[in-house]
Specification:
Radius of gyration: 44 Å
Order of helices and strands: HHHHH
Number of strands: 0
Distance between the termini: 132 Å
Strand content: under 5%
Shape: rod-shaped
Oligomer: single chain
Keywords: Coiled coil
């Protein structure tokens, strides 16, 4: 019986060695897969970081553009208010001069050109159906200025 036990123990040791070799193979495969996963995750993090930086730069550019446009809009509004004030003064002065001039010298009528006469080209485009934006671009004026001129011409016609 002794030889059988030795045979059994030899085959048992061989079995243990085979199991150990198989386990070591699995462990090596698992380790390799883990390393690949770690590398993949690292690459994904780098890509996300790059995208985040790009988005932050783009947001900063948009913010700067918004600030720039807000400044331009404020400057346009200021010019528009100044033009409205000046026009109101001129119209008021013209109305006062017209009343005084008519009372003192009715023969000397001073022809004050109407807004449509002063901006004939603008109203020509407007009558052709051109948009206010197109008129503003073609004339080099701001959109608000074109709107104001058209509005004042309507008021002048209704008076």
């Amino acid at each position: 019986m002794l030889p059988n036990r030795r045979g059994e123990s030899a085959s048992g040791e061989q079995l243990v060695k085979e199991v150990e070799a198989t386990l070591e193979g699995y462990m090596a495969e698992i380790q390799q897969e883990n390393e690949q996963l770690v590398e993949l995750i690292r690459k994904m993090k780098e890509e996300q970081s790059a995208k985040l930086v790009e988005q932050q730069e783009q947001a900063e550019q948009w913010s700067a553009r918004i600030v720039e446009l807000e400044k331009k809009a404020a400057a346009s509004e200021d010019r528009l208010r100044a033009a409205e004030t000046q026009l109101a003064k001129v119209l008021s002065s013209a109305a006062d001069d017209g009343k005084t001039g008519a009372a003192s010298n009715s023969d000397a009528e001073v022809h004050m050109p109407s807004i449509k006469e002063r901006y004939a080209e603008l109203f020509e485009w407007y009558d052709q159906g051109k948009s206010i934006d197109m008129i503003a671009k073609a004339s080099g004026m701001q959109r608000g200025e074109v709107q104001l001129i058209i509005q004042l011409a309507r008021q002048e016609e209704s008076v």
